[in-house]
């Protein structure tokens, strides 16, 4: 028989997590592809994102990341993103909700340069809350040349906070554009979970060996 106190506690925790999630916009951008670094390779990334609910711009995000190729089939990355809360067209009246996001990413190659999988672990922190996230992602990359690629990245945000969990599916669609994708890439990207995102990433790849494409 279900313990009424336990059921009530679960309902309260779930409601509390919903309130906490409304105080911070989930990070949905990726700026990656299914391609991995060579063993010993290094990736440097900078990015900007705008988040919207319908016509309301909710926040501007600025981020950077550094990745390392553990092997030709496994890459790790450390990422930081600053979530700057906005109130429409006005200066932020919700700066107390400005949030720091830190993520440790691991990416495994399933089908070389075409399909990959990752389960990043992230943490959101501001003066009101600390919330954790698992974010399993699949990467599908089309186009194997040196100048252009098309990426589709479905994912599931799994939030943990104060004993409750929350789930939000999401998807990103992006391009990789470059004169040589093995060395650098401009990555425009759009995404959707409960927010619509528009962003731009700039990635530099320092590979210990030459590749025809990245």
Task: Kindly report how far apart the N and C termini lie.
Answer: 56 Å
At CATH level 3, the topology is Porin
**What proportion of the residues form beta strands (DSSP E)?**
over 45%
Instruction: Kindly provide the name of the CATH class.
Output: Mainly Beta
Number of helices: 1
Order of helices and strands: HEEEEEEEEEEEE
Radius of gyration: 18 Å
Major beta sheet summary? 12 strands, antiparallel
Number of domains: 1
Task: Name the overall outline.
Answer: globular
CATH architecture: Beta Barrel
Mean pLDDT: 84
Structural class, from helix and strand content?
A: mainly beta
- What is the total tally of β strands? 12
Q: Which regions are unreliable across 5 or more consecutive residues at pLDDT < 50? A: 7-20, 88-95
The percent of residues in helical segments reads under 10%
């Amino acid at each position: 028989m279900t313990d009424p106190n336990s059921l009530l506690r679960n309902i309260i925790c779930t409601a509390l997590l919903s309130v906490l999630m409304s105080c911070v916009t989930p990070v949905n951008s990726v700026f990656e592809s299914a391609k991995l670094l060579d063993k010993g390779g290094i990736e440097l990334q900078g990015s900007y994102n705008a988040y919207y609910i319908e016509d309301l711009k909710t926040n501007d995000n600025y981020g950077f990341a550094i990745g390392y190729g553990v092997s030709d089939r496994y890459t790790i990355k450390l990422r930081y993103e600053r979530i700057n809360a906005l109130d429409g067209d006005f200066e932020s009246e919700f700066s107390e909700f400005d949030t720091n996001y830190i993520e440790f990413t691991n990416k495994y190659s399933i089908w070389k340069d075409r399909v990959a999988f990752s389960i990043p672990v992230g943490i959101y922190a501001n003066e009101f809350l600390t919330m954790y996230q698992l974010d399993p992602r699949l990467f599908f990359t089309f186009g194997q040349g040196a100048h252009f690629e098309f990426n589709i990245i479905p994912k599931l945000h799994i939030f943990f906070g104060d004993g409750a969990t929350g789930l939000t599916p999401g998807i990103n669609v992006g391009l990789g554009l470059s004169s040589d994708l093995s060395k650098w890439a401009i990555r425009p990207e759009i995404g959707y979970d409960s927010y619509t995102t528009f962003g731009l990433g700039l990635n530099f790849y320092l590979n210990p060996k030459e590749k025809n494409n990245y």
